[in-house]
Amino acid sequence: MEHLVTLGVAVGFLCVLCSLFMRWNELRHWRRGLPPGTMGWPVVGETIEFLRRGPDFMKKQRARYGSLFTSHLLGSPTVVSTDLEVNRWILMNEGKGLVPGYPRAMAVILGEGNVSAVHGPVHRVVRGALMSVIGPAAVRDRLFPTLDEFIGSRLHSWGGGGATLDVQEKAREMLLSSTLKLISGTETGETAAELKAEFFTLLRGTLSLPVNLPGTAYRRGLQARKRITSLLRDLIEERRSPSAPKGGGDILSFLLREEERQEEQEVHRTRPKLTDDQTIDLLVTIMYTGFEAVSSTVTMVVKYLHDHPSALQELRNEYSEIGRRKSSPDEALTWEDYTSMSFTRAVILETMRLATIVNGVMRKTTKDIPINGFVIPKGWRILVYVRESNYDSLRYPMSLCFDPWRWKDRSLENHPYFMAFGCGGRLCLGKELAMVETSLFLYYFLTRYRWEETGGDEIVLFPRVEAPRGLHIRLWTN
Ligand code: HEM
């Protein structure tokens, strides 16, 4: 009995201590003019609930405090915005003190010069350089044939005869290899193998707590970044050597040729010369930025098509039409073939909407920002949460159903509130590249194979869209 009383007192004391702690944490961050909300525990804030209950946590807080509320997420005091107008305003007004605010581990590991770490004139230079190598014109004029050949031949070797494979893992490997091929012209050999292995360590490091102690994912991420930098630096040196073959069609060759061309014609310099460090940051950015989003899209599109035979059939019809225009089944696809795949584009957009491949983007305030009658203090993070706008039943009737036909209304893709690729000055530079990669995957996958899921695989949609233990399918050639 005595023990129970002591235990009860101890628990009661702990509860009082906890609530005092939480109150202290709220007061610590309290400022007149902030939106309402809660801050959770010191240091961890509400991160655990946010990661565990994601969309439900957001809905609960929104119902309680409105579409703009405070929280403490991923180590920073944060204002969450679920308001469409506010979201758009934030993304359109970087110049007013709203710079990207991604977690520290990401900024440090990806490098000071990575596109999300820079702003103002430096951002314009980096964005311009990226645009010249992965923007829509580059995809159409230079990258498309390489991707077509690469993705087509990769999918040849996926198997058949009922073999089982994990489509998520295969897609990840294929996309990383195709990016290496685009960057350096090859995805095989020792350097490529090492780059791939180090890349996955880097990826894990960027999503970890920035604790630089032996054995942590962050420390390993930093080491991987160092090794990747050194491999890319060697590659640049090799390319510059007089004996190196000239005129490769990959991104690195293009950047080095541009550099030479601009040096020869100094007067025509259209943008400042990139340093080698900037070139390396640029290549790492290209490997990193699209990788997760495109492999999640590929995984989810396979899932949705498996569950929706009528959409699958319409895609097959679209590809039969393209096949009829070819003199042999092995004839390469052209840019015109790609732009004629309107239902494919609709399927991809619907997949991105329904799965919400990107839940939100982060900003950091560089001064006090007045928004909607509140003031967001300097140094705070803003989570521009776009997930709920994807399920707006006015814009997307039966919004929880997979309905690619809704995208036949082309105005939906360009609607100001469709923010799957962000908006404003940081609108995704890889949108067309992602569309091409996913379209080519679908074309070759569907024209070569039939598949069924082995069943039992779980898909999670928050904080990242993924199948934690893979998405396993059985595959037969057509
Ligand atoms: C399904 C595929 C993709 C989705 C959903 C997606 C989504 C996004 C979003 C939402 C942003 C805005 C980030 C912000 O405002 O902070 C963004 C930016 C960016 N994306 Fe993508 N992306 C995809 C694929 C790609 C690919 C394949 C690449 C290139 C390899 C790429 C390169 C970039 C770059 C460089 C930026 C930064 C632009 C800047 O800060 O100026 N993305 N993307």
UniProtKB/TrEMBL annotation:
GO terms for biological process: brassinosteroid biosynthetic process; brassinosteroid homeostasis; sterol metabolic process. The keyword Cytoplasm does not apply. Heme binds at C428. Its cofactor is heme. It comes from the Eukaryota. GO terms for molecular function: heme binding; iron ion binding; monooxygenase activity; oxidoreductase activity, acting on paired donors, with incorporation or reduction of molecular oxygen. The chain crosses the membrane at residues 6-24. Keywords: Heme, Iron, Membrane, Metal-binding, Monooxygenase, Oxidoreductase, Transmembrane, Transmembrane helix. This is Uncharacterized protein. Belongs to the cytochrome P450 family. The lineage of its organism: Eukaryota, Viridiplantae, Streptophyta, Embryophyta, Tracheophyta.
